[in-house]
Amino acid sequence: MPLKKNKAPLPPIAWDANDHRLIWQLIAEITKPQNLKVLCGKLTKHEVSSLLKHSH
Description:
Blueprint: H1 17-30, H2 33-40, H3 45-53
């Protein structure tokens, strides 16, 4: 089944605003156990934080 197209484009996101606050909020959500399992499969918090450190 084809994906629905958005009627209007999303507005730009200022990821760097407020000392990159949105990025840190996103990381906090990703590393919650309930979200971690869905997004990363069977990775643990430690494994994900290790990946984030080395993904420069």
